[in-house]
């Protein structure tokens, strides 16, 4: 690895906050991570292929890659892989509770919906507690 590659990787891994977590999302994430009783877990955001194009996903993870973009928001570590980063930079993660008994869960929205639209995807995603999700 060249010196320039090392500098670029350091910039990737020490990024300022590149996503926003609502207070409700932060509270739910802290609660979920605490319930797991593990101190190595962090929030991973990613894009995934879907029948209609690309959608967002999230999970608790324990393995970081050298090319992940990482930041810490109120003691919550967040990582996005380099391929997903352009789609998720500036995204907002929220936790929405349906007061009428419907679905409650995490929602991800991104200002980069135009990138997703050109891929055939939508501008938001959700995680309602299914397999691999928070």
How would you describe the overall organization of this protein?
With 134 residues, this protein is an alpha/beta fold. The protein has a single domain, classed as Hypothetical Protein Aq_1857, Chain: A (Sandwich). The protein is 27% helix and 33% strand. It is built from four helices and eight strands; from the N terminus they run αβαββββαββαβ. The protein has helices at 3-13, 23-36, 85-88, 113-119; strands at residues 20-21, 42-50, 53-61, 69-73, 76-80, 92-96, 105-109, 124-127. The strands form two sheets. It has a four-stranded mixed beta sheet with strand order 1-6-7-8. A four-stranded mixed beta sheet has the order 3-2-5-4. The longest helix has 14 residues, at 23-36. The radius of gyration is 15 Å and the shape is globular. It starts with a helix and ends in a 7-residue tail after the last strand.
Helix-strand layout with pairing:
Layout: H1 3-13, E1 20-21, H2 23-36, E2 42-50, E3 53-61, E4 69-73, E5 76-80, H3 85-88, E6 92-96, E7 105-109, H4 113-119, E8 124-127
Parallel strand pairs: 1-6, 2-5
Antiparallel strand pairs: 2-3, 4-5, 6-7, 7-8
CATH superfamily: HesB-like domain
Along the chain, the helix and strand elements come as HEHEEEEHEEHE
**Number of E-state strands:** 8
The tally of structural domains comes to: 1
**Uncertain runs:** 1-12, 120-134
Shape: globular
Oligomer: single chain
Strand percentage lies at: 25-35%
């Amino acid at each position: 690895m060249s010196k320039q590659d090392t500098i670029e990787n350091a910039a990737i891994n020490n990024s300022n906050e590149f996503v926003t977590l609502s207070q409700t999302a932060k509270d739910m994430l802290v609660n979920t991570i605490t319930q797991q009783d593990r101190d190595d877990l962090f929030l991973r955001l990613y894009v995934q292929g879907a029948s209609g194009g690309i959608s967002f996903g999230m999970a608790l993870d324990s393995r970081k890659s050298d090319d992940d973009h990482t930041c810490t928001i109120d003691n919550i570590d967040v990582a996005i892989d380099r391929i997903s980063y352009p789609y998720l930079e500036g995204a907002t993660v929220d936790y929405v509770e349906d007061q009428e008994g419907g679905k409650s869960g995490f929602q991800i929205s991104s200002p980069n919906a135009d990138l997703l639209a050109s891929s055939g995807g939508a501008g938001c995603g959700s995680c309602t507690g299914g397999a691999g999700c928070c």
